[in-house]
Amino acid sequence: AQTVTQSQPEMSVQEAETVTLSCTYDTSENNYYLFWYKQPPSRQMILVIRQEAYKQQNATENRFSVNFQKAAKSFSLKISDSQLGDTAMYFCASQNTDKLIFGTGTRLQVFP
Amino acid sequence: ETGVTQTPRHLVMGMTNKKSLKCEQHLGHNAMYWYKQSAKKPLELMFVYSLEERVENNSVPSRFSPECPNSSHLFLHLHTLQPEDSALYLCASSQIIGSYNEQFFGPGTRLTVL
């Protein structure tokens, strides 16, 4: 079965600093997608960034970037210049056909 | 209208009650989902509807009954729930194109079963 593991239940970072959230996954698929979702305290889950497995180039969205290591099945999220609004739960997910498999999440707290 | 809406946002019910959760998507998507989110657990996929046909039921107890009358609306009918069913229930929708399936989530319904 496909699994996604987030080994950091909680992380904290000071405003303007950089933080990296870890994610590993297991899949037998050759072509798949990986996602990071953010769930702020208001609960609406929103997509932060996506990565296509067949693309070697790491995805970047403004202050958010990923380190995708396909052989190691690792997909970490780096947040640069952290802002107070980045405080949220972050979920890593892998796509298996029409299903998303989620990790347990990492709670990120950004301190002023 | 925001992309995916859910009502109610909060619901408290007794074990003998019958209630329904509603989800509506305004994105023109062809698939809709129900997830259960419990503390310290991964999101659990409950039901998947694609083109209004149910294609996935992850062994969810029959006290949860989904309904998808059209591509924009999804319901979750609840009856004789247990306290362990208390959780955040999230609805999502997506436009499935080939192998790509980016899901858009609603704000969720916080359910408490007494």
SSE layout and pairing:
The complex is a heterodimer of chains A (112) and B (114).
Chain A: E1 3-5, E2 10-14, E3 19-21, E4 24-26, E5 33-39, E6 46-52, E7 60-61, E8 64-69, E9 74-79, E10 88-96, E11 99-102, E12 106-111
Parallel strand pairs in A: 2-12
Antiparallel strand pairs in A: 1-4, 3-9, 5-6, 5-10, 7-8, 8-9, 10-11, 10-12
Chain B: E1 4-7, E2 10-13, E3 18-25, E4 31-37, E5 44-50, E6 53-57, E7 64-70, E8 73-79, E9 87-94, E10 103-105, E11 109-113
Parallel strand pairs in B: 2-11
Antiparallel strand pairs in B: 1-3, 3-8, 4-5, 4-9, 5-6, 7-8, 9-10, 9-11
Can you give a write-up of this model?
- The complex is a heterodimer of chains A (112) and B (114).
- Chain A has strands at residues 3-5, 10-14, 19-21, 24-26, 33-39, 46-52, 60-61, 64-69, 74-79, 88-96, 99-102, 106-111.
- In chain A, the strands form 3 sheets. In chain A, strands 2, 5, 6, 10, 11 and 12 form a 6-stranded mixed β-sheet that branches. In chain A, strands 3-9-8-7 form a 4-stranded antiparallel β-sheet, with no helix packed on it. In chain A, strands 1-4 form a two-stranded antiparallel sheet.
- With 112 residues, chain A is an all-beta fold.
- Chain A is built from no helices and 12 strands.
- Chain A is globular, with a radius of gyration of 13 Å.
- Chain B has 114 residues and is mainly β.
- Chain B is built from no helices and 11 strands.
- In chain B, the strands form 2 sheets. In chain B, strands 2, 4, 5, 6, 9, 10 and 11 form a 7-stranded mixed β-sheet that branches.
- In chain B, a hairpin with a 2-residue loop joins strand 5 (44-50) and strand 6 (53-57).
- The model of chain B has no long low-confidence stretch (mean pLDDT 90).
